[in-house]
TrEMBL record:
The keyword Ligase does not apply. It catalyses: meso-2,6-diaminopimelate + H(+) = L-lysine + CO2. This is Diaminopimelate decarboxylase. One of its GO terms (biological process) is lysine biosynthetic process via diaminopimelate. Keywords: Amino-acid biosynthesis, Decarboxylase, Lyase, Lysine biosynthesis, Pyridoxal phosphate. Pyridoxal 5'-phosphate binds at residues 248, 290-293, 390. NCBIfam families: lysA (TIGR01048). Substrate binds at residues 293, 330, 334, 362, 390. Pathway: Amino-acid biosynthesis; L-lysine biosynthesis via DAP pathway; L-lysine from DL-2,6-diaminopimelate: step 1/1. One of its GO terms (molecular function) is pyridoxal phosphate binding. Its EC number is 4.1.1.20.
């Protein structure tokens, strides 16, 4: 298992994160348990700031809440000078409950409800990412009612989509997000926004995918968008002050994943933005970003207790743990690959391959397939690395599983930032 951040293996063969041993964490807080290396989250934020500051561009980096949010995380983002993206009333409520500056919150979503827009206007949210033509009229009318201007970006689909190592020129208008450049809908929406008296149009936004390595796709999208903006500027005089390139920076889930440092990606993108604006005779806009996974993914761990071990001769070995797809859905959902280890026996040599299964009632309830492990024993502690993004936030109560606790570790201390759900929580509000 490759180790990130402060994680290390003690001479006794025990996994230690943030100066606290995994068995101690499991003993104090129970399992399944989400553990976050707080120092690594902070370091990831600082890498974005350092590189963008060095680029000389005006920039803003906002953390995409959907990857993982809770009060403590929101406060951490505030302390690290990050903005915050929210996509729902619930994410907005969480951000505001943590005391996050509303001016630094951006509201996303392809179907923002009127109630959510009112909640955002009440709070004084700093930016709306407009995602459809009918939202233009709705947001303008509501902002008028509040006697204010809604600062906004238009989300466009540039006809480029990226997935891990590749990007494809789709040209397709088939997306529930954003407005298409090629079919003219983006232009129609932008013109409507410019005409709307209660909208202050800052610029445009795009997000071409997630878990992306390299910048080919982003640079191709930038090129199309700058070309489009140059044409629009000639016709309408509109000059984008902001270009938001979304998130999507890839992380290393396993040692086999290539590493593409944030520093390299940002430097290439900043260079492409400078060159592209020059080519098209445009003033340099602010560069905005909204990373999620790359901020929290590698900092998160899940700890489970080993239960049933089932060896099917000639077929497969299964080791079952006390959680599963209720706290770890990505393997079942899209075959994501994770590294696993026995956290109390890190130096024991692997003896066989085991598929790590959960305890939930689905055959697809698998955490990791065919992984080399020492023969697991009931009571061992199984650690899964890189579970910081889209785990807690995608957790469910399937089989009435209470959601696990979340613990932040660092400097030899552990603090429980989200309490484990109780049985009583499972029936709260029911009659
Ligand atoms: C999901 C999403 C992000 C964050 O993506 P990551 O892959 O977690 O970095 C940013 N912006 C938008 C619009 C998104 O939908």
């Amino acid at each position: 298992m490759h180790l990130n951040g402060t994680a290390r293996v003690t001479p006794q063969g025990v996994l230690d994160i943030g100066g606290v041993s995994a068995p101690e964490l499991a003993g104090r807080f129970g399992t399944p348990l989400y553990v976050y290396d707080e120092g690594l989250i902070r370091e990831q934020c600082r890498r974005f700031h350092r590189t963008l500051a060095a680029s000389g561009l005006d920039y803003q980096v906002s953390y995409a809440s959907k990857a993982f949010t809770c009060l403590a995380l929101v406060r951490l983002m505030a302390a690290e000078h990050m903005g915050l993206d929210v996509v729902s009333g619930g994410e907005l409520y969480t951000a505001l409950s943590a005391g996050f500056d509303p001016a630094r919150i951006h509201l996303h979503g392809n179907n923002k409800t009127v109630a959510e827009l009112r909640q955002a206007l009440d709070a004084g949210v700093g930016c709306y990412v407009v995602d459809s033509l009918d939202e233009v009229a709705r947001l303008n009318a509501l902002a008028g009612e509040y006697g204010t201007w809604a600062r906004c970006l238009l989300r466009v689909t540039p006809g480029v989509s990226a997935h891990t190592h590749d990007f494809i020129q789709t040209g397709a208008a088939d997306s529930k997000f954003g407005l298409n450049l090629a079919n003219g809908q983006a232009e129609t929406a932008l013109r409507a926004m410019l005409d709307a008296p209660h909208l202050d149009v800052l610029g445009v936004h795009f997000h071409i995918g997630s878990q992306i390595f390299g910048t080919d796709g982003t640079r191709a999208a930038l090129d199309r968008i700058l070309n489009w903006l140059a044409g629009l500027r000639e016709q309408t005089g509109f000059t984008a002050r902001v270009l938001n390139i979304g998130g999507g920076f890839g992380i290393r889930y396993t040692a086999a994943d290539q590493s593409y440092p944030i520093e390299d990606a940002l430097t290439e993108i900043a260079g492409a933005l400078r060159a592209g604006t020059q080519t098209h005779g445009l003033p340099l806009p602010q560069l905005w970003l909204e990373p999620g996974r790359s901020v929290v993914g590698e900092a998160g761990w899940t700890l489970y207790e080993v239960g049933t071990v089932k060896e099917i001769p000639g077929v497969r070995n299964y080791v079952s743990v006390d959680g599963g797809m209720s706290d770890h859905i990505r393997t079942a959902l899209y075959g994501a690959n994770y590294e696993v280890a026995l956290a109390n026996r890190m130096n024991d040599a692997p003896q066989a391959e085991y598929t790590v299964a959960g305890k939930l009632c689905e055959s697809g309830d698998v955490i990791a397939r065919d992984k080399p492990l020492p023969h697991p024993q009931r009571g061992d502690l199984l650690a899964v690395s890189c579970t910081g993004a889209y785990h807690f936030s995608m957790s469910s109560r399937y089989n009435q599983m209470p959601r696990p606790a979340v613990v932040f570790v660092g400097g030899g201390e552990a603090r429980e930032v989200v309490r484990r759900e109780s049985w009583a929580d499972l029936v709260r509000g029911q009659e």
